[in-house]
Amino acid sequence: MPQQSFSPLTIGPHVVQPPVVLAPMAGITNAPFRTLCREFSGGKGLFVSEMITTRALVERNEKTMQLIHFDETEKPRSIQLYGVDPATVGKAVRMIAEEDLADHIDLNFGCPVPKVTRKGGGSALPYKRNLLRAILREAVSGAGDLPVTMKMRKGIDDDHITYLDAGRIAVEEGVTAIALHGRTAAQHYGGTADWSAIARLKEHVPEIPVLGNGDIWSADDAVRMMRETGCDGVVVGRGCLGRPWLFGDLVSSFESSGGPEGVQQPAAPSLREVAEVMVRHATLLGEWIGDEARGVIDFRKHVAWYLKGFAVGSEMRKRLAITSSLAELRAGLDELDLDQSWPVGADGPRGRTSGNNRVVLPDGWLKDPYDCAGVSEEAELDTSGG
């Protein structure tokens, strides 16, 4: 089979090659994690901040202002915004543009968690077509020369599919690119992502790039998604949890023209190499937070993801997940059989896998897809990152 080359992804003035994007994940894709992913990729790709709420940004919430800090080597600087009020979204976008806080703005219409959807935000919002249009119009208008993209899901559930209408609205309002997670909000992260929906969206909005998201656990998955769907790039989320080196694998695959023959993938890491990355990750978190103990505590949620598949006893896993200092973390890791090679079964799903959940929505949300009533000021969350 001949090798297939993939074109660079163009987002406004920014050329992303290979066409690989780190998905925004609350509490995960902070500056330390983005640093790790960028190191493994050699700085290639696009790495998006965790979700920033527009109200918190406009009010200059202290935590939010820390979350929008970018390392001077991060280019382009990419922020994802969450908001449900067009005026507040517009203020936040203008603030970013006028104060030079980022080079690219992504809008979140894909989050399925109840605290977001119950107020009409995230993956619930595209059902209200006029509200979606108003938000996109304010964002694009306020952004000036900054490109605005959006990330969304197929819809609320199988009876309320919205992605094709939302895609057409996005094109009409000047959105630069769209990322589609091939699941509904009701699926959360369960089941299998519907890649055929990504292909349909690409056919529906050929005017702008379409990126695919969902069930990319390896570089091979990314290449296969692009071949099968014709999408212009991939967005990697849960597949890189505990695996920031996945971005090195992705770069290798795409720079080898994406063909199955002759692709020289980096060798899978041993447990010793994984342990080194774990300590570095925890160290970066401590430096970013300004407190080693708090950095190690924040790192605890990553332990199980890094150690998936390795022969590490349950008691040691628990011990490593309650460490409070770098010395304690290093000491625990040093007790492991660090010569273990990458285990069979370590690839594949990680993170949340729940599915078939009822989507929590505001009262009467589904009565009229065009009526914007029912979206209150309370829907604008006042904190970011979760």
Automatic annotation (TrEMBL):
<comment type="similarity">
    <text>Belongs to the dus family.</text>
</comment>
<dbReference type="InterPro" id="IPR004652">
    <property type="entry name" value="DusB-like"/>
</dbReference>
<keyword id="KW-0560">Oxidoreductase</keyword>
<keyword id="KW-0820">tRNA-binding</keyword>
<keyword id="KW-0547">Nucleotide-binding</keyword>
<feature type="binding site">
    <location>
        <position position="80"/>
    </location>
    <ligand>
        <name>FMN</name>
    </ligand>
</feature>
<keyword id="KW-0819">tRNA processing</keyword>
<dbReference type="Pfam" id="PF01207">
    <property type="entry name" value="Dus"/>
</dbReference>
<keyword id="KW-0521">NADP</keyword>
<feature type="binding site">
    <location>
        <begin position="237"/>
        <end position="238"/>
    </location>
    <ligand>
        <name>FMN</name>
    </ligand>
</feature>
<keyword id="KW-0285">Flavoprotein</keyword>
<dbReference type="InterPro" id="IPR035587">
    <property type="entry name" value="DUS-like_FMN-bd"/>
</dbReference>
<protein>
    <recommendedName>
        <fullName>tRNA-dihydrouridine synthase</fullName>
        <ecNumber>1.3.1.-</ecNumber>
    </recommendedName>
</protein>
<feature type="binding site">
    <location>
        <position position="151"/>
    </location>
    <ligand>
        <name>FMN</name>
    </ligand>
</feature>
<dbReference type="GO" id="GO:0017150">
    <property type="term" value="F:tRNA dihydrouridine synthase activity"/>
</dbReference>
<feature type="domain" description="DUS-like FMN-binding">
    <location>
        <begin position="22"/>
        <end position="329"/>
    </location>
</feature>
<feature type="active site" description="Proton donor">
    <location>
        <position position="111"/>
    </location>
</feature>
<comment type="function">
    <text>Catalyzes the synthesis of 5,6-dihydrouridine (D), a modified base found in the D-loop of most tRNAs, via the reduction of the C5-C6 double bond in target uridines.</text>
</comment>
<feature type="binding site">
    <location>
        <position position="181"/>
    </location>
    <ligand>
        <name>FMN</name>
    </ligand>
</feature>
<dbReference type="InterPro" id="IPR013785">
    <property type="entry name" value="Aldolase_TIM"/>
</dbReference>
<keyword id="KW-0694">RNA-binding</keyword>
<dbReference type="GO" id="GO:0000049">
    <property type="term" value="F:tRNA binding"/>
</dbReference>
<feature type="binding site">
    <location>
        <begin position="24"/>
        <end position="26"/>
    </location>
    <ligand>
        <name>FMN</name>
    </ligand>
</feature>
<dbReference type="InterPro" id="IPR001269">
    <property type="entry name" value="DUS_fam"/>
</dbReference>
<keyword id="KW-0288">FMN</keyword>
<dbReference type="GO" id="GO:0050660">
    <property type="term" value="F:flavin adenine dinucleotide binding"/>
</dbReference>
<dbReference type="InterPro" id="IPR024036">
    <property type="entry name" value="tRNA-dHydroUridine_Synthase_C"/>
</dbReference>
<dbReference type="InterPro" id="IPR018517">
    <property type="entry name" value="tRNA_hU_synthase_CS"/>
</dbReference>
